[in-house]
Description:
2 domains, 4 helices, Elongation Factor Tu (Ef-tu), domain 3, 6-stranded antiparallel beta barrel
Amino acid sequence: xxxxxxxxxxxxxxxxxxxxxxxxxxxxxxxxxxxxxxxxxxxxxxxxxxxxxxxxxxxxxxxxxxxxxxxxxxxxxxxxxxxxxxxxxxxxxxxxxxxxxxxxxxxxxxxxxxxxxxxxxxxxxxxxxxxxxxxxxxxxxxxxxxxxxxxxxxxxxxxxxxxxxxxxxxxxxxxxxxxxxxxxxxxxxxxxxxxxxxxxxxxxxxxxxxxxxxxxxxxxxxxxxxxxxxxxxxxxxxxxxxxxxxxxxxxxxxxxxxxxxxxxxxxxxxxxxxxxxxxxxxxxxxxxxxxxxxxxxxxxxxxxxxxxxxxxxx
Length: 314
């Protein structure tokens, strides 16, 4: 039996669908192969990305005794990789000896109860509590802490936060009982890090604390990885630098608790890397601002200026 067959062609609707699919795929290929030049849209997305990370960490810190943080990784001027950070529980233990060095400095010998003694090298501040007759007294103020050779450490007044011999009482071992301590540690990245859009970066030259009276914090360029830490009520309790030091490198600048706003300038990576370009003159750049007392994060457009005085512009 002969079977007749009829060749069927594409309908107009089918041809239009196929054409649309091919056009979309070609557009993706072209877009993927075209390097980003840090357009205004890219910069806006980068600024919103940074602001969202900061707000998420601030929300995550609420109710947590150690809080939460955001780390901006950098080995120079631009910062492109940001990540949520974990803040480990306090290192706790007892003070074996406390020696007066000066009105602003003490040395201590410590023993730890909940962590290995070697973890003290990751601490950056310490507070003390008296333990007498089975009862623990209220904690002292936080002091600056540096431990390069555990169990011995150096404790200093946080002069950058207004502490002085006139307004701070140094803890003393009780006549009967023990002097206990808690040490707060530097944060470490957790989960997946996020990279800002191609061609976009944080210009750390013009990023920093508004309080220009505090040394080392007016500009965050060439200070290693930067971290913004939030406490259990959502306030900024620490602005840190060199959070992720290379092996064998010691942190030399203690974190500060900022009173004034923290500014981050998000702009074109090309402008940052070009020494002939003044990034502050860009009408595409965006400021991401963290208000330390409330933890609130705001985003605002840059006001172009020909000078390079970021502090005056802020």
